[in-house]
């Protein structure tokens, strides 16, 4: 039985198909971008073969569609290195939405093949691709930073992610989550609590990401300034008062 998540994935895939047909990628990603990083991005990468590309017969992108399907078939056959090479070639040749998908699929296939350096290079290539729309370049940069999370310094990660946190940026919420994790890694718990509180308090935060943020925030002691923080200050204040009263006869 297909659940609500499956139905939502199918609907998203249909919108991707329609967007490619009509060159409406930018509009689509503006509407859904915040939800793609994570589970929805995995849907695009993992199930793109199920999109209705096969029905394209007269489109000028038929060759790109066929190349994409052939590369996806290699991935399905557990031949990730060959699939990565095919997707990389398509990423360099395609001039439609397939170029973006091919970059992402190539990175995914390289990761499956155990080539983490190649995966990072592919994501950076998307981030530096002047032919891609800014939103896609930002996505490539965000995913590259995710890939580098364990090796880049927290300060460097945070400084690069800050540009993605504006209110109208579709990657804002994923960038804020990474910033909070970088702050935790740096030992700056208070800063992490403030960042996580921003995510928890924003009604537009994607549900799964909001739940993760709430769990992390709770583990760190909750929002700054809540009762627990005030109570932790009481002993010192009482101690000072006791000391002061001891000085008076």
Q: What layout of secondary structure does this protein have?
A:
Layout: H1 4-22, H2 25-47, H3 62-76, H4 80-93, H5 97-112, H6 116-127, H7 134-147, H8 154-161, H9 172-185, H10 189-201, H11 207-219, H12 227-247
Quick rundown:
This protein has 249 residues and is mainly α.
What does this molecule look like?
This protein has 249 residues and is mainly α. The chain folds into two domains: 1-148, no CATH class; 160-225. It has twelve helices and no strands. The chain has helices at 4-22, 25-47, 62-76, 80-93, 97-112, 116-127, 134-147, 154-161, 172-185, 189-201, 207-219, 227-247. The relative contact order is 0.07.
How much of the polypeptide forms β-strand, as a percent range?
under 5%
Mean pLDDT: 77
Q: What is the number of strand segments?
A: 0
- Biggest β-sheet strands, sense, barrel: none
Radius of gyration: 23 Å
| Distance between the first and last residues' Cα | 80 Å
Quaternary: single chain
Tally the helices.
12
Overall shape: it is elongated
Number of domains: 2
Unreliable stretches, pLDDT < 50, 5 or more residues?
1-6, 19-40, 46-58, 231-249
Give the helix/strand class. Answer: mainly alpha
How helix-rich are the residues, as a percent range? over 70%
Instruction: Give me the strand/helix succession.
Output: HHHHHHHHHHHH
